[in-house]
């Protein structure tokens, strides 16, 4: 059975984000095909997609390599997210479905429960799912796709400190959902902008200057979107 290229692409991207492949390291089709148990055809297609996304670059005499983003490129990603996530929340207030609201409210309940218990790993995953669902509720495939790609890249380039007050952070999540449920786009935008700004301050680059970054040994597929205290 032929494995779809998008499945191979997801696997390679996840491993890049997790630090399995160091920045600047070569990605040979033969070794990748062997690692993922596929032919070289889906690997070749996956590498083209990852190059378009900015995770991979093609170098003369070296072939495909993991990209080595600069500090400015990393900072630009956070700024883009700070602009786009509030836009997505405002759109969600106008376009969300009852199914979106049901999932968002369920995630808020779980997040608030886990925050009271202090389970940080669960909160990291729940925060990612919350923001993915909020983006999907915007009704814009382009916006959802862009935000998903931003989250992957930010998770690759940044480590995120544990939130100072997770209970307060999930209270903010709940306020966003309330605004979306009421169809109040401006309030949804304003709360999300503040929430995203606070979350951004908890991000720390995994590399600096011209030095090669340390290898990241633990997987982090989504950004911890938990905010900081007021």
UniProtKB/TrEMBL annotation:
SUPFAM superfamilies: GntR ligand-binding domain-like (SSF48008), Winged helix' DNA-binding domain (SSF46785)
Keyword Transcription regulation among record annotations: yes
Keyword Transcription regulation: yes
GO molecular function: DNA binding; DNA-binding transcription factor activity
Annotated source species: Streptomyces aurantiogriseus
HTH gntR-type domain sequence ranges: 2-69
Signal sequence region: none
Pfam families in alphabetical order: FCD (PF07729), GntR (PF00392)
Coiled coil, from the record: none
Entries under SMART domains matching the protein: FCD (SM00895), HTH_GNTR (SM00345)
Domain of life (superkingdom): Bacteria
Keywords assigned by UniProt, alphabetized: DNA-binding, Transcription, Transcription regulation
The protein's name: Transcriptional regulator
């Amino acid at each position: 059975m032929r494995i779809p290229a998008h499945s191979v692409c997801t696997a390679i991207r996840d491993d890049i984000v997790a630090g399995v492949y160091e920045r600047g390291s070569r990605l040979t089709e033969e070794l990748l095909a062997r690692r993922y148990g596929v032919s070289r055809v889906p690997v070749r297609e996956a590498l083209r997609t990852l190059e378009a996304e900015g995770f991979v670059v093609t170098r003369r005499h070296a072939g495909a390599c993991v990209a080595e983003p600069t500090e400015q490129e990393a900072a630009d990603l956070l700024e883009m997210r700070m602009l786009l996530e509030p836009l997505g929340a405002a759109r969600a207030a106008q376009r969300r479905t009852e199914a979106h609201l049901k999932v968002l409210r369920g995630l808020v309940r779980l997040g608030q429960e886990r925050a009271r218990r202090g389970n940080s790993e669960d909160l990291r995953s729940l925060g990612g799912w919350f923001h993915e669902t909020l983006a999907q509720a915007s009704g814009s495939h382009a916006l959802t796709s862009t935000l998903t790609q931003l989250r992957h890249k930010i998770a690759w380039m940044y480590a995120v400190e544990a939130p100072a007050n997770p209970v307060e952070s999930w209270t903010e999540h709940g306020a966003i959902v309330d605004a979306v449920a009421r169809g109040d786009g401006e309030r949804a935008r304003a709360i999300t902008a503040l929430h995203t700004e606070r979350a951004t301050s908890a991000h720390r680059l995994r590399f600096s200057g011209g030095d090669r970054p340390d290898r990241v040994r633990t997987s982090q597929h989504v950004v911890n979107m938990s905010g900081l205290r007021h």
